[in-house]
Design a protein that fits this description.
The complex is a heterodimer of chains A (322) and B (411). Chain A has 322 residues and is mainly alpha-helical. Chain A has 15 helices and no strands. Chain B has 1 helix and 31 strands. Chains A and B meet through helix 1, helix 4, helix 5 and helix 15 of A and strand 20, strand 24 and helix 1 of B.
């Protein structure tokens, strides 16, 4: 069976998802041994599973992510053109920054939206709010299209215009997680100020990681399934909480790479630290490598969701008892 | 010129030292020259502790003391001396501000601010302006190194002036020391530039802990904020904005020289030198803005075009304060062999015309991007595309409720 063959009827759900050989391998014993952990932080602090996870291996997901993002020129093209667009908008807004901004320009939500917020802050007042929201929607549009293309490739095809269009259905969902993530970062950042600089920084890193942990699957779910926002968020949380998935480790790895490793590599590029509107070729190359890493992690998250999806498809979306 | 242990008189035409006057060791600060009963008097601070911190006045001609004894300051001073209307104004690290009668050397009034005074007090139209704040360690981290205790000597009303737990811009009456108004600065303000007052506005650049800066214009009458321009870099405590020729100029710590419309804060131009500026404030001479950079260059930016038109060679230390006198531009230089450098006009010299790197150059911007795009696409898409075609595609289970197919299920 290929992924292009899908269930019958628009909007219909299969009674029970068929589980492929690959996902069976990835989820050995999932039925009774790897249930979703209960509670909000069950996935973070609960008992570790001794068996394979429904999310598959972390390294496999990363490898697949890098392969999918790098092996598809439409994905690369959209990513890099979006990077250029982000830079052009920033310069048009009159922001004075260095090419090191290019590292985080295409960061996944909520980091990317926090950067947009900072950029818009420079304008101040009503203009800052309007531009900030416009940037947030624009970023959601780019992430949604990329998610569509990535899922198109993961489903065994080539990234096509149809996949990009399919990705557009995720736009409102990504806008929502951008808003949720940004709000959490602003509120959390204010509360964490009482901890002092060192602990505040550590707290912010953990907060970003936790947000990515719980919301990271939303773009993929929104592209693959037709659910409401709340159900999509619930499924993302349920997937993140699957036993043994190392999803928090995965997200921490991304945050560390984005906020520490890539900026450190950026110091090798001397011109990257100078304020300019016209980055050099080497500065663009550096920004594109960082963008490739960002998109690869998005692809890895999509892959992880698709591996876990058949298992979760058999689980009803848990609703709060009334 | 005030050095750590002496005051120097330098011949403007030759650069030779004319005289030296010993001073008790202390911070190098800005001196002042005042006319007292027809005699030119030099005023300067000295000392580094509460026991030896003093304000001295000597006659410029023969360096004899003007007052019977130097004026005792309560604490070490980094403010230097500001003279206006027969009064010398000095602030110290503990937050005292004193007004001293130039003729007698006696105190007219003193007040206590809630933090130290880190640079010359601004005195304009009968009002003294300052931002009480801790002193920054000029190093890798901007961390206040001094937390002065509130002054034991009270203000006339017995109060300590300044917003609690927040930096504030303070306006005092120059005649009585009574606060005219106190304006809290934006939340998160970590340090500020020296304020300036021109016309009916006061301008001050504020910076947060992440070194993001803003230029504020407030009403000189009541302290109401007129406009804020965000996006400038941090402006150090040893630098101030400058107003001249219908514009306000700021030099930020990242090497940005900015011009703003004083009416609404609209940016007129900016030039990014990508070199730190810590001790230099912009000086405007005939439509040209002069600033000293950290690498020892003195640079000139045309105020109408925003282009760099001249620069000196680099030096061993940073260029700090700039003054224009006798057809010369004088620049204080730092470093181990710091001193004063004088520049004169060069009739044979050519001006340059350099655009700021912060101005977009579309052909260069797009060209560099396209080259990088081609390189990256070839480096990534070709080999990884080959690998992914050879690699076995992952086989996932059925998506739940996938509804993006045609009604007939053909997809």
């Amino acid at each position: 069976m290929t992924a292009k063959k899908r269930s019958k009827g628009k909007g219909q759900r299969p009674q029970q998802a068929r589980i492929s050989a690959a996902s069976e391998r990835a989820t050995v014993g999932r039925g009774s041994e790897s249930p979703p952990r209960r509670g909000l932080f069950g996935g973070l602090f609960g008992r570790r599973s001794t068996g394979p996870s429904a999310l598959g291996r972390l390294t496999t997901a990363l490898g697949r992510g890098f392969l999918v993002a790098g092996g598809s020129w439409p994905i690369l093209l959209v990513s890099f053109v979006a990077l250029f667009g982000e830079w052009a908008v920033l310069i048009a807004m009159g922001t004075r920054t260095t090419p090191r901004f290019l590292v985080t320009a295409m960061a996944l939500p909520p980091i990317g939206s926090a950067i947009d917020y900072q950029s818009a802050q420079a304008l101040g007042g009503t203009a800052g709010i309007v531009v900030g929201f416009a940037l947030l929607v624009l970023r959601a549009f780019v992430v949604a299209v990329l998610a569509g293309l990535i899922i198109g490739v993961l489903e065994g095809g080539r990234a096509s215009l149809r996949d990009a269009r399919r990705g557009l259905r995720a736009v409102p969902f990504v806008v929502a997680i951008n808003v949720v993530g940004l709000s959490a970062l602003l509120v959390g950042g204010s509360l964490l100020q009482v901890l002092g600089f060192g602990l505040q920084f550590l707290g912010n890193v953990m907060l970003i990681t936790a947000l990515l942990h719980f919301l990271g699957f939303v773009p993929a779910i929104a592209v693959r399934e037709r659910l409401g926002l709340i159900d999509t968020l619930r499924r993302s949380r349920a997937a993140a909480s699957l036993a043994g998935g190392q999803q928090f480790t995965f997200c921490l790895l991304y945050v560390v790479a984005l906020l520490f490793v890539l900026p450190l590599l950026g110091t090798l590029n001397e011109s990257g630290g100078l304020i300019t509107a016209n980055p050099s070729v080497s500065a663009w190359l550096y920004g594109m490598v960082a963008t490739y890493v960002n998109v690869s992690f998005l692809a890895a998250l999509s892959y992880r969701w698709m591996v876990a999806e058949p298992y979760l498809a058999t689980q009803p979306v848990r609703r709060r008892a009334r | 010129m005030v050095g750590p242990a002496a005051v120097y008189g330098i011949d403007l035409s030759t650069g030779q030292e004319r005289w030296t006057l010993a001073r008790t060791e202390g911070p190098s600060t800005t001196p002042a020259v005042a006319n007292v009963k027809g005699t030119a008097v030099l005023l300067f601070t000295e000392g580094s502790s509460s026991s030896d911190a003093k304000l001295r006045a000597v006659e410029l001609a023969d360096r004899t003391p003007t007052w019977a004894s130097p004026f005792d300051l309560g604490e070490q001073s980094h403010s230097g001396v500001t003279v206006a209307g027969g009064t010398a104004f000095v602030g110290d690290d503990a937050g005292h501000v004193v007004a001293v009668d130039l003729a007698t050397g006696e105190e007219r009034w003193s007040v206590s601010l809630n933090d130290g005074v880190q640079g010359p007090l601004t005195v304009v139209d009968g009002t003294v302006y300052t931002v009480p704040q801790g002193r920054l360690a000029i190093g890798a981290a901007a961390t206040p190194t001094v937390t002065p205790t509130p002054s034991p000597s009270p203000s006339p009303s017995g109060q300590v002036i300044g917003e609690e737990n927040r930096l504030s811009l303070v306006a005092l009456s120059a005649s009585s020391g009574e606060p005219s108004w106190v304006v809290p600065l934006p939340v998160g303000t970590f340090f500020t530039s020296l304020p300036i007052a021109v016309g009916d506005s006061v301008y001050v650049a504020v910076s947060d802990g992440a070194f993001n800066g803003e230029l504020l214009a407030v009403d000189a009458a009541d302290g109401a904020v007129r406009w804020v321009h965000r996006g400038v870099g941090p402006v150090w405590q040893t630098s101030s904005p400058t107003a001249a020729g219908g514009a306000v100029y700021v030099a930020d710590g990242r090497g940005g020289v900015w011009g703003f419309d004083p009416a609404d804060g609209r940016r007129l131009f900016d030039f990014q030198f990508n070199e730190f500026i810590r001790r230099s404030s912009p000086v405007v001479v005939g439509g040209t803005v002069l600033v000293g950079l950290g690498d020892g260059r003195l640079v000139a930016v045309d105020a109408s075009s925003g282009h760099e038109v001249w620069e000196s060679g680099t030096g061993p230390g940073l260029v700090g304060g700039i003054a224009v006198a006798g057809g010369l531009v004088l620049a204080a230089t730092g470093g181990l062999r710091g001193g004063v450098v004088a520049f004169e006009p060069d009739p044979q010299g050519d001006l340059i015309d350099v655009t700021s790197p912060s101005v977009a150059d579309p052909p260069r911007l797009v060209g560099n991007f396209v080259i990088a795009l081609l390189v990256m696409t070839v480096l990534l898409a070709v080999p990884l595309g080959y690998v992914s075609r050879r690699a076995k595609a992952p086989d996932f289970g059925e998506p739940a409720g996938s509804g993006d197919r045609n009604e007939d299920g053909t997809g």
